[in-house]
Structure formats: C-alpha cells, structure tokens
Amino acid sequence: MADTYNIGIAGLGTVGVGVIDILNRHGDLLAKRAGRPVAVRAVSARDRHRDRGVDISGYDWCDDPVALARRDDLDLIVELIGGSDGPALALAQACLEGGRAFVTANKALMAYHGADLAVLADRMDAPLAYEAAVAGGIPVIKALKEGLAGNEISHISGILNGTCNYILTKMEEDRRDFGDVLAEAQQLGYAEADPTFDIDGHDSAHKAVILAMLAFHAVPAVDTAPVVGIRALDTVDIDYARELGYKIKLLGTARRTEDGIEVCVHPAMVPLDHALAGVRDATNAVMIQGDAVGETVYIGPGAGRGPTASAVVGDIIDIVRGHTSPALGRAAHDLPAMVPLDDAQRFANFYIRLRVNDAVGVVAEVAQLLSDADVSIDGLLQRGRAAKGGVYLVITTHATTEARAADVVAALDKLDNILEPPALLRIEA
Amino acid sequence: MADTYNIGIAGLGTVGVGVIDILNRHGDLLAKRAGRPVAVRAVSARDRHRDRGVDISGYDWCDDPVALARRDDLDLIVELIGGSDGPALALAQACLEGGRAFVTANKALMAYHGADLAVLADRMDAPLAYEAAVAGGIPVIKALKEGLAGNEISHISGILNGTCNYILTKMEEDRRDFGDVLAEAQQLGYAEADPTFDIDGHDSAHKAVILAMLAFHAVPAVDTAPVVGIRALDTVDIDYARELGYKIKLLGTARRTEDGIEVCVHPAMVPLDHALAGVRDATNAVMIQGDAVGETVYIGPGAGRGPTASAVVGDIIDIVRGHTSPALGRAAHDLPAMVPLDDAQRFANFYIRLRVNDAVGVVAEVAQLLSDADVSIDGLLQRGRAAKGGVYLVITTHATTEARAADVVAALDKLDNILEPPALLRIEA
Questions:
Q1: How far apart are CA A128 and CA A79, in angstroms?
Q2: Smallest Cα–Cα separation from A126: which of A323, A345, A338?
Q3: Tell me, what's the pLDDT at B170?
Q4: Same domain for A358 and A397?
Q5: Same domain, A179 and A231
Q6: Which domain holds residue B118?
Q7: Which of B17, B214, B293 to mutate to test the interface with A (most CBs of A within 10 A)?
Q8: Would A328 be classed as within a structural domain?
Q9: Residue A302's closest CA among A321, A318, A286?
Q10: Hey, are the CB atoms on A137 and B293 less than 8 Å from each other?
Q11: Taking every pair of C-alpha atoms in chain B, what is the biggest distance, in angstroms?
Q12: Would you state the pLDDT for residue A384?
C-alpha cells in the first residue's frame, strides 16, 4: 500500500474532533477505501490545552493556522475555523496557491469567496472540496456536481437550516409560539445564543448561493439575494397551512427562470405529499430538478459532529483516491456574475392571511382590491373568530410577481378593516 | 480544450437513445463539465434499421457488440444490452481486459459478476461504473461509495423496484386488489408482460446485492438471499397497516448484524413518519445508515429513459474527468464471500394477520400458541367481520427470528379455527 497521506486540521471544535475520531476509529477501513493510510499530522486551534476528549499530543501543533499551508509534509488541509474572511480565507488562499488540497466545511467562505477560490484551485490544479458546507452529512454537493452532471438543472429547493426546521416542527406539532420554541431551543443547545444568522435565513442563503453556483455555473452576489427568515411566523398561519394541505418550511431556493436565475430564502407552503413536507426537526433536505432525471430528493442530518465530519472525511477520501472534478463543476475562470432578478421578475402563488373586522362588505372590499391590482384569487377561506378579535380571512392567489403581491399586501394593510399587518407566504406548487 | 472523448454504446433501446439524446442536447455544457467534448463514435444493437427517433447514421455500426471493445478509437463503452451473461458479460470482460472504461446500467450483470469484474477493473486500472444499475437516476452508488466513505455502514433499505411500488400505491390508495392493479399496470406499460422478475422481488434482490457489496465489502451469493415479492399481498393487510400507522413497501435490505450480513427482499410495514413511507408510484428511494452520518435518504425516479440515461452520463463524465474510485469502494481482489444468515439468525418484529372463526376461546388459543413458541405479543387487534366470513385477528410481535415466526405461522395454519393461511409481514422499526 502506498505511503501515508498526511493531513492538517485547522480548527478543533466539535467537527474537527469528529474528523479525528473517524480517522482514528476507522483507520484500516479508510485505508482500504482510499488506497493508502490517512493520518492527521498537524493541527491548529485557538487553545492548545483545552480538553477535547481526543488525544492530540501526537500531532504537530501550529499556533498560526496559515502556517499549516506552508508545511511540505502535509498533503491536504482541512479548514474548520469558520468565518468568510480572516484566517479561514488566508489559509484557503495559501493552501491552494501552494497547490495543496483544501477541504472546508465553511459555507460563508464558499458563498463569498468560493468562485475566486475555485479559479485559484483550477489554476494550481489543487483539489478544493466543501461537501460539509451544505446540508451537513448529505452528499448533495457530490450529487449535483457529479451524479447529476448529465442534467441541465432547473430548480433546487432545500431545507438547509436545522435550527429553523426544528423550530418550525415544534411550532406546528406542539402549537407553540415562535419565541417560546426559540427560547427552549437555545436552552437545549439547538439554537445559538445569538440566533439571528440562522432564524433570519442568512445561513440558508449562504448554502443556496453555493448550490446555485454549482447548478447554474454563475456567481450570485450573496448580499443581494432576497432573504426572509422565520421570526415573523405566526402559529395561526401554520394551522391554516395544514388546513390547506401544506406545511410551512424555510426554503433556500435557486431556480432558472426565463429572466435569469432566482436565488432566495423564504418560509413557504410545501404540499403535504411532497418529500420536503415530511422532513422534521433538525433534519435537512434538498430537492433537485434536472431535465433528464426529473426530481430527486436528498434527506439527512444537516449539522452536528458526526454528519459534518462524515462529509469532511468523504471529501478527504475522494482526494486521496485522486478524484479531480472541478470545484464548481466546470472551469471557474469565466463564470458570469448572476444578475439578481427584481421583484417584478419573481413569480409565485401566494398565501395572504388577514385579520379583519367581522363586518358586512369586508370580503368584497378585499376582493376588489386584489382585482384592481390584477392579482387573481385561487381560493378564499373565512371561518371562526380570531382570539385577538375580528376574523381571519385567508386568500390564496394564482401566480403573480413578488412586487405585485407586496403592493397588494401594503394596500390591504391601509384598509380600516384590516386589524394587523397581513401575513404573506409563497406557495410551492 | 482537450481532444474529444469517444464512446461506444452497445444496446440502443430506450436508455441508449436517452444517452445519445443527452449528449446531443447538452454537448457544450457537458464538454465544460467534463473538461473535453464527449461524443458517440460507434454503436451496436440488434436491428440497425429500426427507427429510434434519433439519427445514428453518423456513428460506426458494429453488428457484434463485443467488437466495440476491440476498437482502439473508443475510450469508453456503455453497455445497455442487459442480461447477466451472454454478450453483456463478454463485452464487459473484453472491455476491461483491454483496460478500457466500462459503464453499465445492468443490475443482473453487476449482481452476479460485479465482484469478478471489479477485480478485473482493478487489475487493468480500468474504470468500471454502474450508477444506473440501482435506483435509476438517484446517485446512490456514488453516495455510498464516495460521499459516505467515512462511515461504517450498518443498514441499507430501499424501495428499489418502481413497478412494485406503483402497484402497492394503487392497491393502497384505490383499495384495489393486486391482480386488478397488475393488469392495469401491464396495459399502461408500467409492468412487463411477464412481471415475475419485478413482482416476485428478483429485480430488487439484484440491487440489494449490489448495495451490500459496496456497503460491506463482501460478496453475497445472489441466489441464496431470501426473497419475497408482493404477489401474495392482500388489501386487507394494507388497510390494517394504515390503521397501525404503517405503509407496506417492498424493501430490499442489507444489514449488518452480530451474526453477519443480512441481504433480503420482503414486503414490510414502514412507519408512516419515515421518509420511505411517503414514496409513491414508481419512485424509488434508498435509506442508508452510517455510524458517523446517521440516517440519510435518497429519493427519485428509479427507471425510465431520462433518469437512467442521467445516471449513465454522470458515470461517463466522472470517468472523463479522471475519477478513479475503486469499483466496489475498495480493492476487490480479497473480498470475502458473504455467508448468508439462516432464518434463526434473522430477527424482526412481525405482523401476523389471521382470519378466524368468530368463536369463544379462539383468541386464547392463538395467544397460547404464540406463548408456547416463545413469541412475545406486542399488540393485538380484533375488530369487525371479514367479508369472506369469520373475523380478522391481527397480532404484532416483539423481535423474534424469521424461523420462529415461520414456525408459529405454520402451527397457526393447522388450527381448526383458522380459516385461511395467515399473512406474515416484517415490521421495520
């Protein structure tokens, strides 16, 4: 068997320890699969002496992670530091510039700098792999880049953030408010102390951007993608969703339209009989539509030590075996910038939920307003009274633009008979 | 860009035409993804002059498929002839012996000869790829061999035959008998004129064997795997399954147990909240459990022109890019033969459904028989009368062996109060 393949790991948090654990436990099995033994040789982290539950005394220690890239005895560097810039980016650049293989679980790094890093990787013929950056343990980057390489991709939609899906599941199944479930999730360690990045959709947006680059061979600007999180969701809408045959899921979406590529994140109504609707708790899932294959769906754990380490080790073994698929699925030097669609180019069916005065003529007033705005009503539901006063009026629309839907909601909000700001959600057909 | 990569295709049925169609339509896109243009140069099929809806006049024609393997101008051969032996096997051997890349959609070939072909491929350093052989367009071979390569796999279970899942879905949703639905499926072209191979589970068994080889690095004997199809399923059991919180699916299973590897096919009760339970019609799905990743599920079209061709083209692009993962996930020359478990080593929870005389003491008699056989009852359900006379009695058991369950059912069948042969199904926890 060939010589040992030596890796360096930058960042020894839960995932780094998970990678070391897999390499230790499955050394023989992985050597057979990879064709040669794989061993950690050097590590870098903030605190050398923290007890991590694994013995790192046999590895060389580097205080500076970027120093790992300068060591000639390392074949591959794993970056688990996190953050889109700073040491993670410096390490990635130094590593690839030196022609060395680079594996990362860092979605922010790949969302903001993936295209540039891919150009560098192509030029230096250095492998760049990032399976763990999207949907944790589910090998969806590989599916998109390799397994479905024969397809023109039309649509990707995914449950990409476990924290949000956990909160939505609890809100629905236990009929509890967002704030209540979030507080519990924070206590249990399922949500960060500052949950903004997850619940406001930014984490999902990073992942959607990475999937869009791979699927459409163009580079979206991360900060122009429309992103709506789950903070404003009301349990009443979750109840109505179920009544109408849907579940509400936070979806990261990348879709080819006549006008261009749409990349966005929003809570959406997913039909109950779709595989994404059945995905509960912190599980992630990605739906990919290709012109030859049709629709495929990938479901699994989206985060955590084992699943993320599984993806990192999968990347390592690929590279040890000599896999050489281009980082973004094709040469990256001439990828065009993606032009974001404006709201008048983004079409969907919508769910609008109003709390209105229980008075004669209100439904007619609302219907007239939609008609005047040229928004076609698909369904209308009024039943029971709202605990807060008035009654709920639920409207589903035929396809219209985000712009028109937003205008309609703004106009509705100004009516005297509307008692609180309307809820607006996309319906996924 | 590098020179054109030339492929030969043996077999121009629906999948072969699908492959040609993808290569024609997406030539530029695929060239960018693969790094060089990919073109069909030679083909072989039974009838040169049949109208296939694609123009094959630009390709060299070979009457003998094996002649493709002797052409120095071909870089890769795609085998779409079918059959475990005969020309498909001869072509595979000739191709790999010549060190040429070989891509196949042939599950029978891989189930019976995959291990030998992998040894040959390893020795000649010739790529051997067969993504299309299992679960059509879903890249599950790739997930297992590459994406989850960091895991010790414990359990794979899949809906691997679209015809069976279509029939089961119709039986359940339309409450129609097996024979009725089968006849309709044959008329619609969803089932073969001779459906034996599908509905009796042999097709699923071939695929389960391939997954088992990859997951467990051992070689099962195809013909010793216990295989039960869906022919004997009664709609009454589908109804009871739903009542108990399950759907009945035909599962191909490969599982690591204390005694060895279990490879089998059987209709089983799948909990309604599991992703496999929601898989309808001809869709396929595969669940894979690994020690690091946990459970992942892959869902998509399992057959048909586009999905199967998608998998074949994915394999082609992998090989053009220079991917070199070993055909069975590790060197194949020293893979052990899998020792089939006997029925006393195969454990499950069971569902037993009886039609019994509506008489005093019958339940006690049945319960006593199970107790004497040391089979522990988990649940018992008796309600309503059977249209055919008597009443239905449904028993679910705690874990016991296949042997003991079969003995119990044989003993029950001999009781005077049992009006028809009992139904016996596995329950998947």
A1: 11
A2: A323
A3: 97
A4: yes
A5: yes
A6: 5-137+307-321
A7: B293
A8: no
A9: A286
A10: yes
A11: 83
A12: 78
Query: Residue B334: inside a domain, yes or no?
Result: no
DSSP conformation class of B44 = E
CA B339/CA B218 separation, integer angstroms: 9
CB contact under 8 Å between B149 and A314, yes or no, is yes
**Nearest beta carbon to residue A296 from set B34, B131, B300:** B300
Look at residues B234, B217, B222 and name the one whose alpha carbon lies nearest to residue B176.
B234
Q: Residue B385's CB: how many other CB atoms inside 10 A?
A: 11
User: What is the number of structural domains in chain A?
Assistant: 3
Nearest to B294 among A26, A293, A307 (CB): A307
Minimum Cα–Cα distance from A330: chain B residue = B33
Q: Is B251 within 8 Å of B262 (Cβ atoms)?
A: no
Residue A288 host element (H or E): strand A283-290
CA B1 centroid distance within chain: 39
Q: Are residues A279 and A380 in the same domain?
A: no
- The reply to whether residue A148 touches residue B296, judged by beta carbons under 8 angstroms, is no
Query: Alpha-carbon Rg of chain A, whole angstroms?
Result: 24
Classify residue A284: in a domain, yes or no.
Answer: yes
pLDDT at A323: 82
- Whether residue B271 contacts residue B146, with contact meaning beta carbons closer than 8 Å, is answered with no
Contact B400, B378 (CB under 8 A): no
Local confidence pLDDT in tens for the 429 residues of chain A: 679 999 999 999 999 999 999 999 999 999 999 999 999 999 999 999 999 999 999 999 999 999 999 999 999 999 999 999 999 999 999 999 999 999 999 999 999 999 999 999 999 999 999 999 999 999 999 999 999 999 999 999 999 999 999 999 999 999 999 999 999 999 988 888 899 999 999 999 999 999 999 999 999 989 989 999 999 999 999 999 999 999 999 999 999 999 999 999 999 999 999 999 999 999 999 999 999 999 999 999 999 999 999 999 999 999 999 987 899 999 999 999 999 999 999 999 999 999 999 999 999 999 999 999 999 999 999 987 898 999 999 999 999 999 999 999 999 999 999 999 999 999 997
Contact B192, B250 (CB under 8 A): no
CB contact under 8 A, A296 and B299: yes
Within a domain: B339: no
In the numeric block, which tokens belong to residue B44? 């072989």
Partner residue opposite A300 with nearest CB, options B137, B293, B326: B293
Cβ neighbours of A317 in B, within 8 Å: 146, 149-150
In chain B, what is the straight-line distance between the N-terminal and C-terminal CA atoms, in Å? 53
Residue among B52, B3, B4, B9 at smallest CA distance from B315? B9
* CATH number assigned to the domain comprising residue A249: 3.30.360.10
Q: Dihedrals φ, ψ of A138, to 5°?
A: -80, 125
CB contact under 8 A, A149 and B313: yes
Amino acid at position A312, single letter:
V
pLDDT band at B383 (very low <50, low <70, confident <90, very high): confident
User: How many CB pairs (< 8 A) connect A and B?
Assistant: 199
> Do A9 and A90 belong to one domain?
yes
Residues of chain B contacting residue A34, judged by C-beta atoms under 8 Å apart: 149
Catalytic residue among A142, A170, A207, A247: A207
pLDDT in the model for residue A383: 82
CA atoms within 13 A on the CB side of A418: 19
pLDDT of residue B1: 62
Farthest CA pair distance, chain A: 83
Do the beta carbons of residue B328 and residue B146 sit within 8 Å?
Answer: no
Q: Is the Cβ–Cβ distance between A289 and A158 less than 8 Å? A: no
ipTM greater than 0.95: yes
Q: Are residues A100 and A17 in the same domain?
A: yes
Whether B207 sits among the annotated catalytic residues: the reply is yes
| B326–A325 C-beta distance less than 8 A | no
Cβ neighbours of A292 in B, within 8 Å: 18, 22, 137, 306-307, 309-310, 313
